[in-house]
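=== RUN LOG ===
request id: a7f3
mode: sequence -> structure
chains: 1
length: 504
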Amino acid sequence: MPASPPPAPPDAGRAVAVALLNLSGLGLGYALARRRLLMAACWVATAILLVIALPADADGVPGALLAGYAVLLLLAAAHGAYIGLRARLLWPGRAPLALLLGLVLLAVPAGGALWYRDARDEAVQQALLDRLASADHLVAADASRSFGTAEPDYRQVLGVYRDLVVHHPGSRAARKVPASLRTYYSKVAAPYDGRDYCTAVAPLTYLRTVPGELPKATVGTLADWPDDRLATSLYECGSQGLASGDQDWGTRFGDLMKTFPRSPQTDKVVPAVDAAVKKAQKDVGGSGSCAAVEELKQLDTRIGDLTSSAGDIDGGLASAASRARRSGSDGAYDCGVQEYRSGDFTGARQTMDDFVAAHPHHRNRARAQKIAIAAEVAQTIPAAGKKLPTTASGGSISVTVKNDSPDDVTVLYTGPVTGSFTLKACGSCRSYLLADTLMSTFKPCGGGKDYPQRTIQLPVGTTYFVHKPNGGQVTTAGSDTAELRSGYIYTECAYVTQGFGSGT
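=== RESULT ===
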């Protein structure tokens, strides 16, 4: 007997049937052609593909693996066709039936591919939803942090939203982005809901940039959502700064006027500034005069800066600045009085000198001059500053002041009356050595010279004198306290002393 059955006559139908059966990936063509090892190889290849591909995930199967598997199926089909051309089939015996079975079994890989595609699509949807959930969680976690710290996270989340709606527009995650975006706006703007208006300015300003990062349809009505809130925050923050003395209020009002020029909040700026000016004006004249004057000066400066950067509102800001400037200038007198009464004689003198220079026709100018003189005397004799000087002049007691020095001397005095005058230098006089003044025989203005002099009339009481040389190198101004009584004639002598050979 022959070792094997004789080859069957060539049959193209049988060859196609074996090829189709091998395309199922199960090696059934080899099974019917009695090629068990090759059938097992097909099973192993298919099993490896299933182990790698399942469960389906968003990344899918590597392209190289799919390409290799497809090549393997094609080779199995081609090889099966070659074998089936002459080999008899184990079952079914007739080629048409085998061909029909091969066509039916092609549904296995086709159905598997469709199922896998659906499973992978679902995995992609879940991955996108997880990505959206992670972004939303990050927003919620950052709600309690400062905007400056959380801003990088907010921008990262915005990038996730943008990627979902732009690159995955049909996904379930993309359809949820508008709802997430509403929560995003609410969380970022949380300081506004807490009435922390100054803190709310930065996040609300940021939210106005969000519509430029996302499709218009995604943002919807949220595009204008921050506007009124930002305008309110700028106004309220500026108002709080105006009331507390924070000099940044002008910047807030300026941003408001430039960003929302026709908003109701902008209409409140001039009344708020007017109220601040009026409050400072009312404080002039009391114990807080100096602070009020400084506040008025600051208001004048800040209002000027505001109008320069953001313009005016129907001239209202310029009017407020003018009133602040006038009130601050006029209030300098009250500040000088406050400084004098508090013992700040250096400050009082400077304030009154500035006031006199700036107000040549002011009703308080004459007394301001007196206070400046008394403050200068009190710098040398503090007791002289116990009472605020008046504008009184004259008296019943004659006091003659002579100048026994080579320099012009300014004589200042205060007490019941206050004043000053200057005596010209004595051309034939000299500066005394300190040792001379310690001798018992020392008598200035006693040399019988024609000393420059002036006689003034003063009331009874204590008068404080200070002799201030206008030139020369002297150590200090001379001073004297005179108790003036009726029936006497008094003489004051001004002279200059120098140290031992020091030239001072």
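=== NOTES ===
Confidence is low (pLDDT under 50) at residues 500-504.
The beta strands are 397-404, 409-414, 419-423, 432-433, 453-458, 461-469, 478-484, 490-495, 497-498.
=== END ===
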